[in-house]
Amino acid sequence: MSVKCAIDLNIPDIIHNYGKPMPLSKLTASLKIHPSKTCFIYRLMRILTHSAFFYEHDVTENELEVRYVLTDASKLLLKDPPFSLKYFPQLVHDPVIVNSWIQLSTWFTNDDPTPFHTANGMGFWDFAAREPKLNHLFNEAMATDSLLVSSMVVEKCKSVFEGLESLVDVGGGTGTMTKVIAESFPQLKCIVFDLPHVVGDLQGTENLKYVGGDMFEAIPPADSIMLKWVLHDWNDEECLKILSNCKEAISSKGKVIIIDMVMGNKKEDRELTETEIFFDMQMMHDVTENELEVRYVLIDASKLLLKDHPFSLKYLPQFALHPGILDFAAREPKFNHLFNDAMATDSLLVSSMVIEKCKRVFEGFELLVDVGGGTGTMVKVISESFPELK
Ligand SMILES: C[S@@+](CC[C@H](N)C(=O)[O-])C[C@H]1O[C@@H](n2cnc3c(N)ncnc32)[C@H](O)[C@@H]1O
C-alpha cells in the first residue's frame, strides 16, 4: 500500500527529476498534498527506505535533514519506459484484487476455483472482459513487464528466433513483446493471439497481426509459438490442453517458446525464493488451483496465531485488513468487536510480560486508571496480581 501511495503521489519521478539527493522538505513541498499531511511524508518515506525502495543519503555535518535517492527497486516505479513496472503495484492493490484476498479463508471452505471467484462470482478473465478499467490496468501491467523482458530476450536469446518464418504469441496481451520481436526480425510474420476484449480493434503493422480467439479452442497455425506468462495461469490439465493445441498449430519442425517463472530455482537465494512464493500466491489467488503435498511444523510466529494459545494474536491479521477507524467502530458492532478482540489478545501477551518483568512499577500504588484500556484485559491481569490495587 505504501508503494502504491508513493506512485500515486509521483514520488519516484519527483526524486528522479530532482537529479541529486532530494531533501525531505523539498520533496514534501513538491507533492500535491494537503498542508495538514506534510508531517506524514517522513513516515511514508521511512518505511519505503527500510524496504529498500529509497535510500537515505548520508547526512553530513552541515545538513539538518534527510535526503533521498532512488534505488534499483524504485527506478522500476518511474513513469516512463523502458523499465517502468509502475502498473504492477497499482494492479495488485486495486480494490477488486484486495477484496478477493480478503476471501482467501472463505475460499478454502468452498469449492470455488479461486478466491477471485469467491469474491466476484466469476473468473479473472471473464471479469476483465466486463470491466474495462481492470482490463486496461491488467494489460498495461503486462505490457510494461513485456517491454522490460523483450529487450533482454532480443539481446540474449536472439538465436531462438533466427530462421523462423512465423510466430504466434499466444495470450500475447496487447502485443508489446511481439512488437519488439517483429521490429528486430522484420522477415518474421507475427500474430498476437488473445481474447477478443484484449486485442479488440488494435492495429497491426506490416509483419504483425492481431487475432482474437480462445486458445482452448484453436490457435492460428505458425512455425513457432510463444507463451509468455501464460502457463502459470492454468492448472496441469489446462496446460496440457493449451500445449496440445500448440502442437496442432505448428509444423513438424516448429518450436514452442515458453517464458515463465521457474519455482525453486535457487533455493539458497532468500529474496528470489520470496519473490517466487509471493508470485505463486498471487496466481493461486487470481487464476489457478495448486496441487502440493508437503508437511509443515509451527514456528514461534505461527504459534501466536493458534486459537487457544495463551498468547494468541489471531485477531490482529484480520483487523489489519479492515479499513476501519474508531468512529466507524462506534457504529459497526462487528468491526468494534473484532477491534476490541485484537487489542485484547495483544494485551494478554503484553500483560504477562509486564507482570513478570516490571512488577515493581505497580508496587505501592493504591489506584490505577487504564486510559483507553479497551475491554480491560490488561488491567484484569494487573488487578489479579495486585489485589490491593483499585
Ligand atoms: C498473464 S497475461 C500475459 C500477457 C502477455 N503474454 C505478457 O506477458 O505480457 C495472460 C494473457 O492470457 C490471455 N488469455 C487468458 N485466457 C485466454 C484464452 N482462453 N485464450 C487466449 N488468451 C487468453 C489473457 O487475456 C492475458 O492477456
Explain what this protein looks like in three dimensions.
The chain has 390 residues and is α/β, with parallel strands linked by helices. The chain folds into three domains: 2-74, Winged helix-like DNA-binding domain superfamily/Winged helix DNA-binding domain (Arc Repressor Mutant, subunit A), CATH 1.10.10; 91-259, Rossmann fold (3-Layer(aba) Sandwich); 315-385, no CATH class. The chain is built from 21 helices and eight strands. It has helices spanning 2-8, 11-18, 24-30, 41-50, 72-75, 87-92, 95-102, 104-108, 115-120, 124-130, 132-156, 158-161, 176-184, 196-199, 236-249, 270-286, 300-303, 315-320, 326-331, 333-357, 377-385; strands at 22-23, 54-57, 67-70, 166-170, 189-194, 208-212, 222-228, 250-259. A five-stranded parallel beta sheet has the order 6-5-4-7-8. The protein has a three-stranded antiparallel beta sheet with strand order 1-3-2. α10 crosses α11 and α11 packs parallel to α13 (176-184). The radius of gyration is 27 Å and the shape is globular. The model has no long low-confidence stretch (mean pLDDT 87). Residues 1-80 form the O-methyltransferase dimerisation domain. InterPro entries: COMT-like, COMT_C, COMT_dimerisation, SAM-dependent_MTases_sf, WH-like_DNA-bd_sf, WH_DNA-bd_sf. This is O-methyltransferase.
